[in-house]
Amino acid sequence: MFSQFDGNVAFSGGGFMPSQSLQSTDPGYSSSSKNRDSQVLLPLTVKQIKDASNPNDEKSNIVVDGVDVNNIKLVGMVSDRVERATDVSFSIDDGTGRLVCHRWLNESIDSKEMEEIQDGMYVRVHGALKVFQGKIQLNTFSIRYAIHELIKLFECKYSLGKYSFSSL
Fold first, then answer.
1. Which UniProt keywords apply (predicted)?
2. pTM of the model
3. What's the average model confidence in pLDDT over 64-76?
């Protein structure tokens, strides 16, 4: 009538609960999920990036809140846009700070995408954080007008009573 239930055995296999018995104690052990986790596209603010641990060398990873960060998503306003033959540099201001970004013009699609982006536009940028000459910068691989993010911002402010339809 009475049975014993061992929770460690019950939850040690479906992938839903991690089990310490499945983790390797070998220091040279490299999990493929660890590599996959470092390639996640993380939404961050410029403040989080500026507060990140800045590695001394350019080959080390940037760590934000204890997590190795590589690819990020950032939403903000473009400023200081400078176009050159091989790249376009600009800054993104998200309200928490400014971050220098670069878009390398490797293909014609890159040039076409950057022609549409001007100072004062709100954009969504995807890119890889890099350290160059001791400073963190973002090498972008996608930049788009951030219409959906702006709509959400106005919806939130309207629902909080910050705007009325007459002020829009």
1. DNA damage, DNA recombination, DNA repair, DNA replication, DNA-binding, Nucleus
2. 0.65
3. 87
